[in-house]
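Action item from last meeting closed. Structure (268 res):
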């Protein structure tokens, strides 16, 4: 399989310190021609931009404030983000969002930060990379307040990264103009509910992710994940969507280009 885009990876993670360049080379050899690097804490923004500049043909980045760090939100941080997203290397804002499972910051801190950041995405035209864990009712409420439907003149407002909701959540997000990010969990045997939600949402709103170094696909559970593992996720999603792997690859890559404004002349 070739022509794949990994729309969500954390190659700045310390677990890639010894072999980051080799990881990117393995990704290319596996058919992954583009990776979107996610820097979800302000301290990581500069490194993500630098990696994108060092690999302009294969890496772009998204800068955000993970709900883990929602207590860092301030007008000055938003102003800095507004300046950073003007850089040509930056194709998105995120991850941003809500996490009611692992975050130490409370919902009362997360929600206003998320709404301000999401409103900036809406008004600036930069796609949002949304994290949601254990918070889908509140996510639907926030999206419903800020968005009335798909954007004019483009296909997507953003992506719900590592989608883990049910059919209702999938259709709600899709119908408002959001992609659903598909990661290693689609390959896990017990995730029939997730697979059904993705099947009903349909391939025209799905993008592929690894979330490296997290969430490896089933055959690599317990190991460090990396973008070269994306084909396993793609093959399982193709089965879910009842498409040939090559057709699934083409659809998800077209979706990724529409989502992040990636050029059409970079696929092999």
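Sequence:
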């Amino acid at each position: 399989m070739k022509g794949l885009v990994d729309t969500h990876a954390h190659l700045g993670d310390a677990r890639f310190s010894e072999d980051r360049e080799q990881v990117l080379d393995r990704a290319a050899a596996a058919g992954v021609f583009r990776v979107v690097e996610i820097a979800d804490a302000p301290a990581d923004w500069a490194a993500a931009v630098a990696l994108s500049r060092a690999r302009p043909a294969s890496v772009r980045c998204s800068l955000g404030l993970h709900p883990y760090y929602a207590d860092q939100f301030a007008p000055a941080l938003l102003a800095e983000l507004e300046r950073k997203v003007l850089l040509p290397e930056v194709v998105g804002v995120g991850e941003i969002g809500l996490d009611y499972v692992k975050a130490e910051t409370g919902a009362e801190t997360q929600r206003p930060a998320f709404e301000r950041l999401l409103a900036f995405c809406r008004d600036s035209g930069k796609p949002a990379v949304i994290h949601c864990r254990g918070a889908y009712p509140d996510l639907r409420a926030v999206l419903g307040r800020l968005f009335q439907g798909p954007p004019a003149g483009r296909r997507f407002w953003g992506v719900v990264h590592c989608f883990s909701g049910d059919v209702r959540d999938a259709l709600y997000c899709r119908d408002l103009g959001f992609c659903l990010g598909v990661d290693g969990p689609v390959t896990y045997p017990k995730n029939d509910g997730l697979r059904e939600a993705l099947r009903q949402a349909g391939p025209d709103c799905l993008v592929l992710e690894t979330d490296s170094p997290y969430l490896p696909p089933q055959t690599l559970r317990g190991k460090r994940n990396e973008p070269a593992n994306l084909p396993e996720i793609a093959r399982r999603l193709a089965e879910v969507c009842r498409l040939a792997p090559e057709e699934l690859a083409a659809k998800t890559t077209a979706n990724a280009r529409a989502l992040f404004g990636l050029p059409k002349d970079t696929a092999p």
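Note appended to the action item: The CA atoms of residues 57 and 266 lie 7 Å apart.
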